[in-house]
Protein 1
Amino acid sequence: MKGFLKLSTLVLTRAILSAAFPGAPTVEKRRDGPQFSNGQPVDGNGKGAPILGGTNKQIDLQNPDNLGQQLTDNGVVPNLKWSFSDSKTRILKGGWVREQVITDLPSSHDIAAAQQHLTKGAIRELHWHRVAEWGFVYSGSILISAVDESGKHEVAKFNYGDIWYFPKGAAHTVQGLEDENEFLRVFDEADFDRVGTTFNVDDWIARNPRDILAKNFGLDESVFENVPSPNPYILNGTVSTRNVTGNPAGELTGNASFVYRTFEHPSESVPGQGGVFYKIDSTNFPVSKTIAATFVQLKPKGLRELHWHLNAEEWLYFHQGHARATVFIGNGNARTFDFSAGDTAAFLTTRGKHYIENTSDTEDLIWIEIYKSDRVADIPLTQWLALTPADIVAQTLKITLSVAKTLKKEKQVLIKP
């Protein structure tokens, strides 16, 4: 009788839980093997239990490593990931913008960024920043126009893979040329939304007395009656058909140019044969003195080898595919993150040792790395060990001398599966 009552109580309890939490997993799932891919923190070996309370199932499914999947994770590592999908989108006539700044990702101390979309003819109004801006076109085509402190100008059309760099203070604007156009903007200042960082030309003009404006421009005051206030940020327009001519200072060309055509340059050597790696920094884009970058395409199941950066934090934007990275920050502390298209991340300088793995069986992983520096610099783990006396490495890692002697002395960069 007692056994019957216990069984009845168990059945009733499960019925109540099922009614209160529809779809909640049953305890039996603990014995069905690992449940991380089903969004549950259960390892199938006696650790963990199903989530019965409120949870965002889609986020759990996208981040199995947050559920304890990696047994090597340990200690406390701050969140190093932010998705543009979690950013507030500002919609405007002619497009939209969504940002990731330091209040979104506090671990990104050097870099802020934005995705921006312009329809055909739409203009990101004339403006400038007290910080440098770096941009990458990933859909459509755009027209940029810029002027530097010497009065030299540059007007150029950008397509997929093209990059611009505007030094701090350089005046510029962007216009969409195709029906839909989208690009990444990066800034060498994490607190980018702080007042005094961006200045829009119509906002400035609207804040001056009209008699001063008339005197400055040598025009009648009535000319400035319709200057927008507040400034529109993005505005609809028609595609520009005019060229800038007669500039006595001339154009920005050669090493002074703000334009870099990524795919017109050779990619870097990748001994690991795992993909394609482009480096864009002051060594090949001389004007870009405060932002260095890479464009990376990694084959399915490939690996960006274990490494760290010694001169700047690494900020990442994942454009295509799915990835995993374990970040080790010292003293036994490590945490694994899962990434999808639209995610950003910030890995700490020197302390943020990591790899990046393409977790897809079929799809290439594409991402951009950004550094607040004049150059891209990293130290791979394998190369470091290979260039240390083999007997010291063998004794330290408790491996055989013969294995230590086989470690590759050349950077592999991207390793094929």
Note: The longest helix spans residues 2-20.
Protein 2
Amino acid sequence: MTLKVYADRMSQPSRAVIIFCKVNGIEFEEIRVDLSKREQLKPEFKAINPMAKVPAIIDGRFKLFESHAILTYLSCAFPGVADHWYPADLFKRAKINSVLDWHHSNLRHGAANFIRNTVLAPAFGLPLNPKAAAEAEQILTASLLKLESFWLKGNGKYLLGSFQPSIADISLVCEIMELEIQCMSISISLVNLFGAKSC
């Protein structure tokens, strides 16, 4: 049976799972759950993920949600995935898990809330919230500083000083690239409106 990936490419965690599958040659069927249409709240999707968030997967009869859990599962369940993504070495795995845990309560928390409250809220029928955006920006700035001063220290160019990427790298890079995409989007809008550039 083909792996089913329920995702919306607007979602950074969804993109991480899709990219991981493509990079590792994992065959999958992508099933779009349109967040802008609130399809994640439909009963048929909540039967797959009661938390009503993307991504989620179905592999045979096995259902799983939460992007980091999915990336871990895919690394272990599919033959041919290189060991560097989620090494068999217990100590290396623990270090990767520490980055993934830190990511959701720091970088993801700051980035997602910043983007939501500066750009995306209207797409979901919500008002922009400058106060929430300012708070998120502080978390985001602190997270980016911590990323540079701690998680990227070492000889290698990847997280934890590695010379090859892990599932933590793919997860965090999707988060950071979202900031660049949104910055470009804001710049284009400003150029169209005022003939000025930002970012």
Note: Residues 167-194 form the longest helix (28 residues).
Protein 3
Amino acid sequence: MAEDAPSSSSRRLESIRRHLLPRPPSVLSLNPLSAAQAGPNPVIIGGMVLDIHAKPSVAPHPGTTVPGMVKYIGGGVARNIAECMAKLGTQPLIISVVGNDMAGDFLLKYWRSAGLCTDGILQVHDVATPVVSNVFDGSGELIAGIASVQAVETFLTPNWIYQFSRHISTAPLLMLDANLSPQSLQAACKIAYESGVPVLFEPVSVVKSSRIAPIAQHITCTSPNEIELVAMANALSTPGKYNFVKLEQCHNKTEAVDHLFEMLSPAMFFLLEKGIKLLLVTLGLNGVFICCKEHIDIMKDQRMCRMTALSAQLLEKLEGCFPPSALVNLSREGSSRTCVFHLPATTASVISLTGAGDCLVGGVLSSLCGGLDIMQSVAVGIATAKASVESEANIPAIFSAASIADEARKTLLSAKQIWCQ
């Protein structure tokens, strides 16, 4: 009996551990119409996080608990974007870190369930997996949140990133989220710059968005919201030079968009002067501003674009919706004009807003990798974001190609050029 005691105890502990482990969500499945991408994969570097979502069923009261629902959901900006891209048929390599704990096991099991590559995910012993705890109101708006993501800064070091230099240097694009330390951001940018790989910087938050300052000259594209845009411009200029005042009352969407352009255009134009080629400024219910020079080339080599079943279907549906002859040719040689376009958001039945921005970026990047142009890609991103806000999870269980194509077409047909000179 004495010899059996240790194994019996171990079995009991393992049983308790399995009982306490958060139940994984449904298997991460790729859309049947989205075949795996061949050739070099886009690289995504940043946070892989366990999100804890708490949504009350009655109005919350300070100092006490109220009934509601608590869920464990795969989260993290980089992880969300990578999952979105995978479900749209573009399989990225994610470089991230988790702990050797229940949350880390939860995230890795979910990732492996679709056969996605975990080679870039560092699992560290005696380290807590990054966790974000969010509390929402009844309409899905975030009331409060606490993020514990120190492991990303501590363990996603330049040395770990350099191990994937070959993957980065042959990637069609690289996306970095601002959870990375400044040193790691610079290391990743250096690899990409030396190989001509375009880099997208996702600012994550107002505080972390300032980390763009030392690497701005290497950033091809960034996707801030209004306040992150202003914070980034101030980080590269005199603090407080740029500001944003939210319009409290507006009678229509046109008035709101005009106000937003007036408030944000100085910061947008300044960031273009600092070397950023493309700005995608997310405006929530008011859509997206696209700000860039008239001659712009995002992908380093169009031959690296790998058309999937989804991107082929989208191209067929979106071709000609936004003809350059009617507005401006973004790929025209020899022009230095700065252009700003507005793409509206489409009406959605909101359940949760936490994954919308990440799905927008995931939709844009997947579309660019699939051969769509900038306007088409942003329209697909907006349609993908709509699917996210209508889902309980950060990333919907599955995307409907027909729905995304229809919503993206509506957006393109409503797009407007609001500045070009």
Note: The chain has a mean pLDDT of 86.
